[in-house]
Amino acid sequence: MRRIEPGIWQPADDMQLEPSALEIAKGSENNLVVAGPGAGKTELLAQKACYLLQTNTCPFPYKILAISFKRDAAYNLKERVRLRCGDELSRRFDSLTFDSFAKQILDRFKQALLNEYKISSEYDVVLRDQTILDYYRLEDTDYINTTNRDIILTLHCTQLPHNNTSPGESIRNEVWTKMLSADPSKLSFKMIMRLAELIINTNPKIKQYLQQTYQYVFLDEFQDTTGIQYDLFKSCFLGSDSFYTAVGDDKQRIMLWAGAQNTIFEDFISDTGATRVPLTMNFRCAPRLVALLNHLTEHLLAKTDFATPSHKWHPDQGECSVWIFENPKDEMQTLFQDVHNWVTVDGLNPKDICILVKQQLSTYAGSLIDYFNQNGIKARDESKFQDMLTQEVCVFIINTMYAIFDLKNSAARQIAFGFLSNLHTELEDHQLLKLESVLSRFIKKIRKDYSASPLTKDGIKAVITEIIAFAGKDRIKASFSGYKNSAVLDLYIKEVENELINNYTTSKDIISALDMLIGKDTIPVMTIHKSKGLEYHTVIFIGLEDGAFWTFQQQEDEDKCAFFVALSRAKERVVFTFSKQREDKYGRMRNQSINNIEILFQELEKSGVVNIIERRP
Ligand SMILES: Nc1ncnc2c1ncn2[C@@H]1O[C@H](COP(=O)(O)OP(=O)(O)OP(=O)(O)O)[C@@H](O)[C@H]1O
Question: Boundaries of each UvrD-like helicase ATP-binding domain copy (predicted)?
Answer without folding.
Answer: 14-286
